[in-house]
Write a structure and sequence with these properties.
Blueprint: H1 2-15, E1 39-46, E2 49-52, H2 59-63, E3 69-73, E4 80-86, H3 95-99, E5 105-107, E6 122-123, H4 125-128, E7 129-135, H5 139-146
Parallel strand pairs: 1-7
Antiparallel strand pairs: 1-2, 1-5, 3-4, 4-6
């Protein structure tokens, strides 16, 4: 009998509270600051042109549990020739970001991503590049300022 009264009490309490449903396309919920979204490549500015912070070492690809990252290094430079992320396989675990020694990857707050085919979820380095460029001090200028 006590169990029945507790059950009815819970039901009546839920019946008179307002619903918490969000009408998604029209009203969007705020993402928590630590929310995990899509992975992006960070850019830095050296001289007059922006370059990738990624040195194509491949540590992110080696540590990815899903093996959804592909990295190939350019012959002459420390820049990626090929950098692809297959988001259809990615589990957003942040292991690639945490293991990157150059702080070249960043997880954004973007969580809405819809596609019609599987190829839509495979992104190359141009599509992964961040719009923001992080200023980096050129080593020569730093040495001149110290003297």
């Amino acid at each position: 009998m006590i169990g029945l009264i507790k059950g009815l009490k819970t039901t009546l309490k839920a019946f008179f509270t307002r619903p918490v449903t969000v009408m998604y396309p029209y009203h969007k919920m705020e993402v928590a600051p630590r929310g995990q979204g899509l992975i992006r490549l960070r850019m830095k500015e050296l001289g007059d042109r922006p370059v990738y912070k990624c040195s194509a070492c491949g540590i992110c690809a080696k540590n990815c549990p899903q093996q959804c990252i592909t990295v190939k290094k350019k012959e002459d430079e420390k820049q990626p020739e090929i950098y692809k992320v297959n988001y259809s396989m990615c589990i957003f675990c942040r292991i690639c970001i945490d293991t990157c020694p150059f702080d070249a990857l960043e997880q954004t707050q973007e969580y809405e991503w819809v596609g019609e085919t599987r190829d839509y979820f495979i992104r190359d380095k141009e599509a992964l590049a961040m719009a923001e460029v992080f200023p980096e001090a050129i080593e020569e200028n730093v040495k001149e300022e110290e003297v």
